[in-house]
Amino acid sequence: MEGVVSRVDRTNREKLFACITATSFVLDDLRIYLDTHPNDQEALDYWRKVERVRNEAVEEYTKCYGPINSYDVDVKNKWTWVEEPWPWEGRC
Amino acid sequence: MWSYERRLQYPVNIKQRNPRLAQVIISQFGGPDGELAASMRYLSQRYSTKNRKVAGVLTDIGTEELAHMEMVSAIVHQLTKDLTPQEIMEGNFERYYVDHTLALWPQSAGGIPFNACFFQSKGDPITDMVENMAAEQKARTTYDNILRLVHDHDVCDPIKFLRQREINHFQRFGEALRIITEELDSKNFYAINPDFTADLCK
């Protein structure tokens, strides 16, 4: 599987994945801030802005490289959730 | 319920194995100030916490701690992956190896198994928030201690991320404590459990 993925495609995959990691982290941090500051309009605007970017990145990644969440597995004639490396395996 | 995402909160990609370091870092998985204790502490405390904002902080930080536990476990796993018997002996890893081979098991660096007595769930939100603030500081100190021993950038980088999160969570629990104290009856300040206000025996 890894061998047939072109270098260009892998770079795109890494970029998309990095975008998901970064935007998810912004939301993780904002979430606990908003729990104690629920009326901070600036933080709410930031949430909306970053959430949009994250949703687009997750949708694109899922479509091209497979699901990050098992609810999004595209079920045809085979269960593909367990085919890709698990996150703790690392790249090296 | 929880939903698993196939990604780490912050990437862990370690090239160089190091079983000696793994035995130190495993404390932040199953040790007294580790991420397993942190997540169980907050996720246990939240049920009886009447303040909605504070219950939200406990739920969301407790959830993030599960992701931190996964990161620490990934670090330990990558530091010990495919070790040879010789590397096990040279890395002083044999006493862990004999019971767990190369699997993850929650213990402290000194080999003490994970124990729920590492944390409290006291049912008094002031008591619990003060405990949580102390817990975040203890975890931050542990990461500081780890960082003094680590010289591999691949290991330092995710550990520094985790250290920073302890500081952030300390801030949030400080705010949670402030929210609770602001809602207290002035006669009840710091004296009586605001979530269990039955009369004390006089």
What topology does this entry show?
The complex is a heterodimer of chains A (92) and B (202).
Chain A: H1 7-36, H2 41-65
Chain B: H1 19-25, H2 27-30, H3 35-45, H4 52-80, H5 85-90, H6 94-100, H7 125-149, H8 153-182
Helix pairs in contact in B: 1-4, 3-4, 3-7, 4-8, 7-8
InterPro entries (chain A): CotJB_dom
Protein name (chain A): Protein CotJB domain-containing protein
Domain Protein CotJB (chain A): 15-89
Largest sheet of chain A: none
**In angstroms, what is the radius of gyration of chain B?**
19 Å
- State the total count of DSSP E strands of chain B: 0
Q: State Rg of chain A.
A: 16 Å
Percent helix range of chain B: 55-70%
Structural class of chain A: mainly alpha
Order of helices and strands of chain B: HHHHHHHH
Report the sheet-strand fraction of chain B: under 5%
Q: What is the element string of chain A, with H for helices and E for strands?
A: HH
CATH topology-level fold name of chain B: Ferritin
* Largest beta-sheet details of chain B: none
The CATH superfamily of chain B turns out to be Ferritin, core subunit, four-helix bundle
Helix content of chain A: 55-70%
Give the number of domains of chain B.
1
Whole-number total of structural domains of chain A: 1
DSSP strand tally of chain A: 0
Shape of chain B: elongated
Number of helices of chain B: 8
What's the multimeric state?
heterodimer
Domain Protein CotJB (chain A): 15-89
InterPro entries (chain A): CotJB_dom (IPR024207)
Protein name (chain A): Protein CotJB domain-containing protein
Pfam families (chain A): CotJB
Structure description:
The complex is a heterodimer of chains A (92) and B (202). With 92 residues, chain A is mainly α. Helix content of chain A is 60%, strand content 0%. Chain A has helices at residues 7-36, 41-65. In chain A, helix 1 (7-36) runs antiparallel to helix 2 (41-65). The mean pLDDT of chain A is 91. By secondary structure, chain B is an all-alpha fold. Chain B has helices spanning 19-25, 27-30, 35-45, 52-80, 85-90, 94-100, 125-149, 153-182. The termini of chain B are far apart. Chain A binds chain B through residues 17, 20-21, 24-25, 28-29, 31-33, 35-38, 67-71, 84, 86-88, 90-92, and chain B through 3-15, 53, 56-57, 60-61, 64, 70, 73-74, 77-78, 168-169, 172, 175-176, 179. Chain B: Ca(2+) binds at residue 60. Chain B: Belongs to the manganese catalase family. Chain B: GO terms for molecular function: metal ion binding. Chain B: Mn(2+) binds at residues 35, 65, 68, 136, 169.
